[in-house]
Amino acid sequence: MRTLAEPLTTSALREFLHGLPGVDEVGIKARATALGTRSIKNESKSWAIDMAIRMVDLTTLEGMDTPGKVRAMCAKALRPDPTDPTAPSVAAVCVYGDMAPVARAAVGDNLHVAAVATAFPSGRASLEVKLQDVHDAVAGGADEIDMVIDRGAFLAGNYGLVHEQIIAVKAACGLAHLKVILETGELRTLGNVRRASWLAMMAGADFIKTSTGKVPVAATPAVTLVMLQAVRDYYELTQTRIGVKPAGGIRTSKDAIKYLVLVKETAGEAWLTPDLFRFGASTLLNDLLMQRQRMAVGHYSGPDYVTID
Amino acid sequence: MTFEYAPAPESRAIVSIASSYGLFINGEFVDPTGGTAFKTVNPATEEVLAEISEANQSDVNAAVNSARRAYDRVWSVMSGRDRAKYLFRIARLLQERSREFAVLETLDNGKPIRESRDIDVPLAAAHFFYHAGWADKLDYAGLGPNPRSLGVAGQIIPWNFPLLMLAWKIAPALACGNTVVLKPAETTSLTALLFAEVCQQAELPPGVVNIITGAGDTGRMIVEHKGIDKIAFTGSTEVGKSIARALAGTRRKLTLELGGKAANIVFDDAPIDQAVEGIVDGIFFNQGHVCCAGSRLLLQESIAEETIDALKRRLQTLRLGDPLDKNTDIGAVNSREQLNKITELIKSGDDEGAQRWTAPCDIPDKGWWCAPTIFTNVTQAHRIAREEIFGPVLSVLTFRTPDEAVEKANNTPFGLSAGIWTEKGSRILWLAGQLRAGVIWANTFNRFDPASPFGGFKESGFGREGGIQGLTAYLRSATDGDDQAKGMS
């Protein structure tokens, strides 16, 4: 577990974050596109599909979630392909805080339970409310907390406030791992994504995560590439590895494999583990399973041969 | 297990290579009158791909005569709109047969299929599309009303981008109403010969495009041929100079696109990760066989160390090997001769005290290969900072101030291209005005577009290819006067 960071002033943070090298948007998109042309075949593809399944945070974050829905999803998370016991389990289930006890009861100690907290998804509440949200989730059995940053404060340049809040949430997490959601779709520029990544890592994030899935633009390869560069550079400076979680919008195996290529060729092989890279997704899992079945039997099955939970 | 990429080779079944090829004269393949031939080899395997005819003087005469006939009777009197129709057809055929061209280019040249597929072939088609658009609009090219074509163009192209250089030469020449005699480099004739097939398929009138193969001697016959009105050459500065000497005092026009030793200048406020990508694109694209390659890296001293570390880390992810594998980044060196030249210059870097770092990669047993190499502690006086290496070898120099960057960048006999990396727009504009180079990229490198003119300063040549400026290489403007009337030949 990471030791708690000391709060820093906005001006000190501003000086550091604005001193980071810029991000050229054209260049980084070109790089992400070029890495997307890697051709992953045969045994590499099988390996990548299984790794991608093991990296999924199977997610349901809806107002209409019920204990029944969450239990069904947990069953799927534990045993994604009932016809094939060799299919690995996913990394975690990801739910709202009030569903954490239901999820924990369903998965036992076999999977991580991630809960979104801190007035997810907008983060528009007092720090007290956010911290209480975290306490409730942890008490309910969550061992991973997915918090959102205050994008308003970040965009207003109030880095000190964002930093301080992450530190406070980290303290409230206790032993639980902290994933910090940057909501890159609202930060808009890739320069902001790099700064927010560093801000979160310096404040004690164990993971940096792209999106809530609740705004129109979620994870993109370019955004994820910037975040992977940030964790790589942070490691070189501190020898601490921070995880990355793209979330939202990744629906196909092909996309997932492209992300694994980004990880391998940017942060390096050390990040190719569910401890350091996750996919926040719901529909992705079934596409991975269909591809897995195809690799095993040589032909596609169809959506009725994977379960819908 | 780690995430290794399984082999992903592009199938070569799409190409059918004949055991021997004739010369493409007057719309058909004919045997060379001299009957001599040479072999073309896959540089990645040393496998012989085909026998290529060597054109002698009477073949060159036949090609020039055929081009002249086609010029006088068909092409020069055809309307621009009709010429455009043929160019559009060729462009579309290049697209339709793009995979075939890409695989063949990779087999004959050694470049990675990723590059021939994503860059060479699409850009070649783009050049035909672009110039097709010009064919009926030449009156509006700024050269006065009704600019006239020159006649027969003799075109000699290098082995580094065989099909793309062919397109850069043939598309503007044809759009402007000229006919051509083109000679590809002797180690990379196959895509030019496939292009000849495309000309037939497009029903281009016979003689408008003639493609004759051979080595330096054949090239000299084209250069010295009195029936040719214009020579366009892309290749080494040494050969370029001898061509300029041969044409001095004649009425024949000349454009030359020669060597380079481009400076890629990185300031301390650059987007470093993208600059590293640009450095890699600049010098390791096409194994460094690029005349505008960013072969001299000028780093601001304050960021030199971290940038070199980042560059080395990045180079360790480059994948050298089978050029047909879709994941290959670095292919084979085109010929043993070129590899020897690169090796000799690398040795000079060692001997003159520069510090060498070579990316760790397995070199295949057969074929000609050169691992990506960086030299640090290079000074302006080193051979590797002055001579064109034309291989995956980067010389790193440092500077302290913008003025020093300009001085060092310009301190070379060449002047083809340059790169600037900084987030400061005003500095880009100032520096671009200071650098004596024909193409200047800012925060990117080795990007090409048919609408953008390309060409050099100083010993990198003269004349432009692409864009509205490129048309002037194949047109006689109203102010040009009538050279023939002056009795020069």
Number of helices of chain A: 13
Low-confidence stretches of chain B: 483-489
CATH topology of the largest domain in chain B: Aldehyde Dehydrogenase, Chain A, domain 1
Number of strands of chain B: 20
Instruction: Examine the secondary-structure arrangement and name the CATH architecture of chain A.
Output: Alpha-Beta Barrel
Question: In one word, what is the shape of chain B?
Answer: globular
Would you identify the regions of chain A where 5 or more consecutive residues have pLDDT less than 50?
A: none
Query: What would you call the structural class of chain B?
Result: alpha/beta
- Distance N terminus to C terminus of chain B? 71 Å
CATH topology of chain A: TIM Barrel
Describe the structure.
The complex is a heterodimer of chains A (309) and B (489). By secondary structure, chain A is α/β, with parallel strands linked by helices. Chain A has one domain: Aldolase class I (TIM Barrel, Alpha-Beta Barrel). Chain A has 13 helices and eight strands. An eight-stranded parallel sheet of chain A has the order 7-6-5-4-3-2-1-8. In chain A, helix 5 (100-107) links the parallel strand 2 and strand 3 (112-116). In chain A, helix 2 (25-35) packs across helix 11 (221-238), helix 6 packs parallel to helix 8 (159-173) and helix 11 (221-238) packs parallel to helix 12 (253-266). The model of chain A has no long low-confidence stretch (mean pLDDT 96). Chain B is of the alpha/beta class and 489 residues long. Chain B has two domains: 20-258 and 457-486, Aldehyde Dehydrogenase, Chain A, domain 1; 263-442, Aldehyde Dehydrogenase, Chain A, domain 2, CATH 3.40.309. Helices cover 38% and strands 17% of the residues of chain B. Chain B has 15 helices and 20 strands. Chain B has helices spanning 57-75, 80-96, 98-109, 113-134, 162-175, 190-201, 216-224, 237-247, 272-284, 301-315, 336-351, 383-386, 402-410, 425-434, 467-471; strands spanning 20-21, 23-25, 28-30, 37-42, 47-53, 148-149, 152-156, 179-183, 209-211, 230-234, 253-257, 263-266, 296-300, 355-358, 373-376, 393-399, 417-421, 439-442, 461-462, 475-476. In chain B, the strands form five sheets. Chain B has a seven-stranded mixed sheet with strand order 14-15-16-13-12-17-18, sandwiched between helices. In chain B, strands 9-8-7-10-11-19 form a six-stranded mixed sheet, with helices on both faces. Chain B is globular and about 65 Å long. The termini of chain B are far apart. The chains are: A alpha/beta (309), B alpha/beta (489). At the A-B interface, helix 2, helix 3 and helix 12 of A face helix 9 of B.
